[in-house]
């Protein structure tokens, strides 16, 4: 596969299979632990090197999956990644996320109970997987456009930091914003 070729993310049909597998896994946990864990919203909006993420915002809980990594490693993902994220959810409901380590003994026990190997990381080959695009901010000096990271941009805005162009030694000033 060539360097620039991007994997096609999983289809609607496969997304439906992943959602069904996730819900089955949650149901299995409900039976195992004798209480009802509700199903969650599942989004396929994760990019980069993470295959899955269990996310809590206020009272909102959801599971996010990476549709490119799922496409590249479908069988592994629909078993391992699904169980991995469901186990985080069950830990959250049984213990509370703040009270235990993310991949601690509680999570490991639940992974084993659900029939999975409690391995916290996977080494995926990311060829063809689009990685997160970091926002850059356009600045100009006397000679060219510079693209500063969000961190540098914030230092300029909030702390009045000064950066000079290494070529013309002119001071960098904000150019009309664009996102790369
Ligand atoms: Zn995890
Ligand atoms: Zn310059």
Briefly say what this structure is:
With 180 residues, this protein is an alpha+beta fold. It contains five helices and six strands.
Q: Could you explain the architecture of this structure?
A:
The longest helix has 22 residues. Helix 1 packs parallel to helix 3 and helix 3 packs across helix 4. The strands form 2 sheets. Strands 1-3-2 form a 3-stranded mixed sheet. The chain folds into 2 domains: 102 residues, 2-Layer Sandwich (Zincin-like); 39 residues, no CATH class. The protein is an alpha+beta fold. The mean pLDDT is 89. The protein has 5 helices and 6 strands. The chain is elongated and about 70 Å long. One zinc ion binds next to loops.
Cα-atom Rg, whole angstroms?
Answer: 22 Å
Largest sheet: 3 strands, mixed
The kinds of small molecule bound in this structure are: zinc ion
Mean of pLDDT: 89
Strand order of the largest sheet: 1-3-2
Terminal Cα separation, in Å? Answer: 25 Å
The amount of helix comes to 25-40%
Q: How many independent structural domains?
A: 2
The H/E string reads HEEEHHHEEHE
According to CATH, the fold-level topology of the largest domain is: Zincin-like
Indicate the low-confidence ranges by residue numbers: none
């Amino acid at each position: 596969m060539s360097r620039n070729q991007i994997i096609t993310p999983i289809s609607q049909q496969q997304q439906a299979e992943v959602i069904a597998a996730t819900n089955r896994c949650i149901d299995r946990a409900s039976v195992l632990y004798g209480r009802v864990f509700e199903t969650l919203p599942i989004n396929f909006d994760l990019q980069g090197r993470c295959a899955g993420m269990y996310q809590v915002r206020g009272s909102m809980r959801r599971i996010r999956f990476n549709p490119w990594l799922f496409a590249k490693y479908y069988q592994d993902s629909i078993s391992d990644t699904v169980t991995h994220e469901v186990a985080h959810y069950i830990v959250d409901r049984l213990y509370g996320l703040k009270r235990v380590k993310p991949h601690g003994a509680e999570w490991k026990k639940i992974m084993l109970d659900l029939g999975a190997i409690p391995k916290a990381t996977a080494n995926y080959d990311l060829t063809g997987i689009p990685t997160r695009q970091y926002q850059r901010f356009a600045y100009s000096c006397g000679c060219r456009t510079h693209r500063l990271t969000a961190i540098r941009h914030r230092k300029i805005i909030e702390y009045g930091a000064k950066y000079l162009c290494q070529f013309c030694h002119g001071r960098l000033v904000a150019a009309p914003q664009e996102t790369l």
